[in-house]
């Protein structure tokens, strides 16, 4: 993706394993691509909750001593990229709180579009909030619920939330997983030791990392409770009211290529996007190259369908962390060059087709095209394996303002000229939907079409819950 958009976070939970905490650590390692700002693990021994969370990558936050201190037979973990609430330790997850029924930990992937309304309602009645994350309202709803059974309390909570949520809850007595009625974000169920141990993860790559067998997706509108009493599944939304709207951007960019998401392998789906792109936007060229890593699979599909040779024109430096935000465009371009280097022999004097998964704001894409021109590419033809982003996302992608999106304020030819391209081609919405598994209407395409399955509150924004922040 040119480093221009980020997703909310990744979840991992395991119940009934002697090495639950260590496996959670490994699972979070596999999900690091979903969030790099902070991470945390909470475990239980059946009486209390223990936790550790901090800013930074999984490998920086945890060490053998910390993992040993957390050691228990049940644990949940979280990696975060902020889409509601700033990047700070107060907003790091899982959240841990105590209320009348005991301690509870909550981890969330997604974005709640009614969090501001819910929070203001609780604050008017004396509620006190410790963070600026939308997830904290979940604690308040559960704490205030007056229902007799756990299922009714949790069901009331989940039915009070609007937007996208895959949730993991941990108490001393159980682990609970839930997915919003639209199934916007992925959530998978796995098992180990012949079903004696259950695992929940945002992606199946994390299940594979710990040796768990993928069983099925957690269904939209489904709640799963795992406790010493066993595994139980409940519907908190009637089956006839379920309207799946899976985020298609999971297949385009977010998920790891080796994961199964929404019933299909991500790598194969991206190859299909690339092949369809070759049919929609053919061009005479000498080489097809991807912008790593997001463009890799689509570039293979484009090359196979077009018959143009595939090669690696960009090499990614995997040992570079985040570069500092730079004040000048020259320095920003230098930051791009540190992360991606050109193989001059591949592109010099060549007509190059460069594949990327998306163009959001366009600034880093422009820097990469400039690298190709400087390396001697004779022609540069860019192909994008999704449609133009013309609308904001309110469900967990970090572009919530339309003015941020280059395709919302520029024509395709203006974008082509801004990027200094010979030609530019985006995958069509119809072409994209022709490549996915399952009914087309089961996918959310709001960032391309403006057709939202859940309308947001007027004041939805990354900093809408910050004191003095923009609405």
What does this structure look like?
It is a single chain. The protein has about 475 residues and is an alpha+beta fold. It folds into two domains: about 10-245, 4-Layer Sandwich (Glutamine Phosphoribosylpyrophosphate, subunit 1, domain 1); about 260-450, Rossmann fold (3-Layer(aba) Sandwich). The protein is built from 17 helices and 23 strands. The chain has helices at about 20-30, 60, 65-70, 115-125, 135-145, 150-160, 205-210, 250-255, 265-280, 295-305, 330-340, 345, 365-375, 405-410, 410-420, 430-435, 445-450, and strands at about 10-15, 40-45, 50-55, 75-80, 95-100, 100-110, 165-170, 175-180, 190, 195-200, 215, 220-225, 230-235, 245, 260, 265, 285-290, 315, 340, 350-355, 380-385, 425, 445. The strands form six sheets. It has a seven-stranded antiparallel sheet. A hairpin with a 2-residue loop joins strand 15 and strand 16 (about 265). Helix 9 crosses helix 10. The longest helix has 15 residues, at about 265-280. It is globular, with a radius of gyration of 22 Å. The model is unreliable at about 320-330 (pLDDT under 50).
